[in-house]
Design a protein that fits this description.
The chain is an alpha/beta fold. It contains ten helices and 13 strands.
Amino acid sequence: MVKLNIVEIIWHDLGDWLSCYKKDPIPSPSLQKMAEEGVVFENHFCTAPQCSPSRSSIMTGRYPHSNGIMGLTHRGWEYNKEEKDLPHLLTEIGYNTYLFGHQHEYNYEDEDKLAQMGYQHFYSSSWRSWPWPCDKIAKMASRFFKEEAPRKQPFFVSIGYGEVHRNYGTKYDPEILNKITIPGFLPNLEIVQKDIATFYENIKRADLATGHILEAIRKSGLEENTLVFFTTDHGPEFPRAKMTLYDPGIKTALIIKYPGRLKPGKRIKQLISNVDIFPTILEAIGIQIPENVQGKSFWPLLLEKEYTPREEIYAELTWHTLYDPMRAIRTTRYKYIYNFQPGYPI
């Protein structure tokens, strides 16, 4: 029996701004459909409100201060020498591993170093691939699932978009403009409405591309043996969101689809951290979870088996463009943020 295939679809800077999370008319029908056919996590949080640190937790099941990536990789941060992330581990145990588009865990610029990322096959290169448009990445990934995906050996595919990272541009749907609900942490001004409307336009484009990939997986005949998870690294680039430990900075979308195994339309309210994704995948494919993993597998929760829920999640901020040391703990009722350098401009 072929082991379970794993597909990761990860966007930039989305938070949970999708129609399956919010009442606004956010144009995300593809992910709305995935949510209806899969499992939606309503209280999923990232470990850090910046790209590389958050993604490092997804890929290692460890917090940024433990795995070494406490800041952006293109600004010099990297994994500790003994760290082993998901592509390395899955390649070692016999998976075919593929990267389409963007990643942000390594800063490799030349092709000679790409193999050090753990993937066997590349349909992009360094972190600088993020300006690639999502439709181009989706076209490559869709062709892979339809024509090239292995049938007898399991595969891990990571698909990364630059969207919905700024620059949003100036195009927006005027029909949506008057329907937008401005969140309480932003001022209700026309310029903010237009900014969010352009953000929605980027979501619309990325959602369409994601829909093509999901449809290609369905048509490939591999869907019944493929676990697909959709997520993002952190919140959108708005004030009091990205690069902060407030909820708009660390609350993120997580949707998981595994037809025939997971109950469709299920919505999970328990606290989940993206540091939990790594051990969950390992348990799903029957691999022993390494002792140094700090995340907690929620695979039993997905299967509706006995599961002890988290009482809290943790988040951290150390370095983005400046030294900005903060830590946070959040329960279902309270949040505490500790600023190690009070008075310093955020």
